[in-house]
Amino acid sequence: MKILYVSDAIAIWGGLERVLVEKANYLADNYGFEIHMVTVNQGEHPIIYELSNHVHYKDLNIKFHSLYLYKGLRKLIKRFRLWKLFVKRLKSYIESVSPDIVISVRPELTSGLVKAKGNVPLIFESHSSYFSQLFEKKDFYTYLKVRWHNHSVKNARMVVALTNGDASNWRKINPNVFVIPNLVHLNDSDNYSSCKAKTVIYVGRFSKQKDIGILLKIWTIVYQRHQDWNLQIFGGFGDEQERLLSEIRMMNSNICVNQPVKDIFEKYSENSILLLTSCYEPFGLVLPEAMSCGLPVVAFDCPYGPADIITDGVDGFLIKNRNIEEFSDKVCTLIENEDLRRRFGKAGVWSSQRYRADNVMPQWVNLFNQLSNK
Question: 98 and 124 in one domain?
């Protein structure tokens, strides 16, 4: 079977990029599928995650990101020209490869795929969640953009959502929705957290979605009660990076900001608790990753990922969304009880196995077979 994935780029240390590469590699190496990976904005940037030699890779070199150089009418004209070039090159590639199924992992690329794919079944794989559209700033341009993206998704043969909550929202646009959780690269070593270190870890971008601002408020409360503990932040780039780093520098609360690292599992194992404070999550990849290393987790019950991953009071704490006091109190509860940390951590190692490749990928193969038979 021939599968074609289309994304913007594989140039940052991101969850989507990691999952995309691991799925492509698994289908090529374990099932013998002919997997093609197409990007549109990679350019000269190196591919962050290693692709299997059995995955065919092509960058269309469209460079939509260059639009920031233009303004007003010139920007609209340039966008239209790049979109036409994208459709032309994508259509040519699809005709040369003749895939059985095409998968879009970015809503902004789906309209081009609808036009270029011909009769090939199209899957839109939701990694940003329907809720993210409601979270964006409300201006006329954003309104038009969301309507256009949703119109494109409506024309996909199938939408794949990562959680049941996200699936119920996408069914407002397209009734054909299938739920498959993320494949998660889990801890495959014998190195687990002892839960003894007086350190708490946070992993995420400095973005509005991740809400590191509320994390700092929570940590201020926790630090007042436990000044011998520290917070390790592993934060990637984001639109709020400069402001948040400035705020952290003014705090005196045992906070250390680190650059993103390739082997995040080593860092998980060096800490004792993981925190997630996002306003929304398509899935929440860091939760099962950390749980597989024996870490108890604390997260807001935001739309929609954490509730699907965490069993409250068993492998972590699920907090009423945006309740800072409850979140801080549960973190302190874990800090004050090493046995509870270990018990949650042990349960997390077991429950995270739901997201192993050999549990998730057969669901994808089953879906591919259904679509190709139709």
Answer: yes
